[in-house]
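Thread: quick sanity check before group meeting

JM: Hey all, I'm pulling together slides for Thursday and realized we never actually wrote out the predicted structure for the chain we discussed last week. Dropping the sequence here so it's in one place. If anyone has concerns about the input, flag it before I start.
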Amino acid sequence: MLTEFDNMPDNARLWIYQADRPLNEDELSLVKKHIKHFLSQWQAHDQDLKSAFKIEHNQFLIISVDESFSRVSGCSIDSSVHLIRSLEKELSLSFMTTDCVAFLLGGEVKLLPFNMLKEKTALQLIKPETKVFDNTVKNVAEFRQKWLIPSSETWVNRYFK
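JM (edit): ok, ran it. Output follows.
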């Protein structure tokens, strides 16, 4: 059961998929079409899942499930990952970029490999006030409050010392 993301409760479970590049308008349209279709019939143990999604900065796909309605299962999570993998193939990109951290620099999303953070902070290309996307947030409340925060308030802070 597909609903609006803004209507999801604070405790709704959340997954963030970070693409390795921004999506163009045609790709955004295709992703939205596939995600809407999938979520409108997504189930766990024959129970509809109340779910929502949004795309941020043309690069982050956020999917949420209200588990107070129906609990998500391992099989239902697997089916969502299968959808993400099929989108990756169709679009020739990766939504599972785990070797990079995303920053908001000059109003644009910039991905930096983890092994370059020390160098970039030493050069002051990444500063304590530089916003970082924390894709490890677990629910909608954390997403709204802690997804995009200054680097000094995250694990990146260790590189400023």
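AS: nice. The mean pLDDT is 95. The two ends are 47 Å apart (CA to CA).
JM: adding both to the slides.
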